[in-house]
Design goal:
Keywords: Signal. With 299 residues, this protein is mainly beta. It contains 2 helices and 12 strands; from the N terminus they run ααββββββββββββ.
């Protein structure tokens, strides 16, 4: 028969988890949680004692128990149990446990900092109405203290009006090489302060290259006349953009294997929060990239 002490330990641990779920159900900093998915308390044994130290990430959880399945699990953050979504399957050619820290679904809501736009049944998140030339709207997602060196994710968006990728209009060329500026029309993903680049996703007004459009198409489009990209962005051979679908003729180079997922090995370990910005060198009424879905995982 189990001792009263062991029953109390198990009961208190379960109460702690329940209280945290209740407290974070409406907390925007943990929007990645899907409470309809299977939850796991597998680090708390059936006899009321810890099988392992409380996991700090999905990767640690997978290491403790390789049979752990994808779904909502709990990790320890600042002395409390936090629900997170874990992908334990193959993602970006690796299956040793990815923790999702960014989740965007415009059908549900937009992250703080972005504005919801609706057209018919379509919902997407963009820059605020009236955003001026050379502006970015930003939202930050907590890393929950998880240490990571690899990032894997995707972002889907709709083009609004006439974005022009990396073309900077007259009098604004000084912003092209500054990561803190609106250096692209599209989505910039960074971490830390000062900002360190993870990924850039550009939106362009046309897939056709003519003498009128060659300055305003994506840099990976054949025949483009875009200026040289800054070194922190990288080139299309290593940085594929968007969903990889419907790439015709001149856009073939924009569609690489593995899309829509992007992958970045930082080359170092950090626990920085991740910032996602929607930028445009002209006003929101002239151009925008409106995000409707996205997920970013780390390990």
């Amino acid at each position: 028969m189990l001792s009263l002490k062991k029953y109390i330990v198990a009961f208190v641990a379960l109460l702690s988890v329940y209280a945290r779920v209740r407290a974070t159900a409406n907390d925007e900093s943990f929007t990645s949680v899907n409470y309809q998915e299977e939850v796991s308390l597998d680090h708390i044994g059936s006899h009321g004692h810890m099988q392992h130290e409380p996991p700090l990430s999905c990767r640690q959880m997978k290491k403790n128990d390789p049979t752990t399945r994808s779904g909502t699990h709990y990790v320890m953050f600042r002395g409390e149990y936090i629900p997170v979504h874990c992908n334990m399957d193959v993602l970006c050619d690796s299956d040793d446990g990815w923790t999702r820290i960014v989740y965007i679904n415009a059908q549900q809501s937009c992250p703080s900092g972005f504005t919801l736009y609706t057209s018919g049944n379509t919902k997407a998140c963009g820059r605020r109405s009236g955003a001026r030339d050379g502006s970015c709207d930003s939202t930050t997602f907590s890393s929950m203290g998880i240490k990571y060196s690899q990032v894997c994710g995707f972002v889907y968006a709709y083009q609004y009006n006439s974005p022009d990728a990396y073309a900077i209009h007259a009098g604004k060329t000084n912003i092209q090489t500054r990561i803190d500026s609106a250096y692209i029309d599209g989505v910039s993903i960074t971490h830390g302060t000062p900002r360190k680049h993870i990924w850039s996703l550009m939106a362009a007004q046309s897939e056709k290259v003519t003498r009128h459009t060659k300055n305003y198409v994506c840099p990976c489009t054949a025949g483009n006349a875009q200026p040289k990209l800054p070194s922190f962005i990288g080139y299309h051979t290593t940085d594929p953009l968007w969903d990889g679908k419907n790439c015709r003729n001149n856009e073939v180079n924009c569609c690489k294997a593995g899309m829509p997922w992007f992958y970045k090995n930082l080359g170092y370990t950090t626990n920085d929060d991740i910032e996602l910005r929607i930028c445009g060198d002209q006003s929101q009424t002239d151009e925008d990239a409106r995000v409707f879905s996205g997920e970013i995982y780390v390990k």
